């Protein structure tokens, strides 16, 4: 397996552009990462990367080897998946991504039961509100809210999730309860924005009598962590737009109150993305089926759909 390990390491170094990043991803030390690349270069009698103290650049030979290396690993993965499918004994690591709110409240609680049912599988759950790239980040599947941009990926829809605009009673007492999206803009309400590097200009898509409309809301508070926005809203700092399942407990307890109810947010799609190849992997298929079945029940039983 050492040669395959070297190839896997090469592919991750190529995709991530860094020995240290590839080592962290593969859970090996930088020294082992460098050693595997050197072994592969010795075996092939070529230099795969040009190395300096500040950069790592694939050579022409490295670029040529990458596509073939990916095909080798895909063939091995497919062969292993066929054997595992026959024996019904999935093994190996499963790399899963999800937004913070979805991951913490819906996905993470299901992982222990899944791992108990399939003891030879490990789950590496990465939570982030930014958009992820399944290919370059080595992910098996990614849960998300919204619409995917990559048409080459497969999508499995889970539900259309209701959302709500809400704020703390203290904020409403100080600034008033806006009746609509127009009031959010004209009265310059403090809107709490989810934003990450590369995100477009911030707008909220709300339902009006004329149909969906975008409102260019403003606010001084921004974060790439959706739970931080909820904390700010609870502290009376502004208005937050959230899937209901993320703030349901606060709404029931009165810590947050719906606002701009004349123009509620448009529901948002919850789904998961995967490549066609990953769908063939039994552990990927089993995890999707296991989690989606339970997510659907949780959301439905909570009256959130």
Automatic annotation (TrEMBL):
GO MF terms held by the record: DNA binding; DNA-binding transcription factor activity
UniProt keyword Lyase present: no
SUPFAM superfamilies linked to this entry: Periplasmic binding protein-like II, Winged helix' DNA-binding domain
Keyword Membrane tagged: no
Any Pfam family the entry gives: LysR_substrate
Keywords: DNA-binding, Transcription, Transcription regulation
InterPro entries linked: LysR-type_TF_proteobact-type, LysR_HTH_N, LysR_subst-bd, WH-like_DNA-bd_sf, WH_DNA-bd_sf
Taxonomic superkingdom: Bacteria
Family membership noted in the UniProt record: Belongs to the LysR transcriptional regulatory family.
Protein name (record): LysR family transcriptional regulator
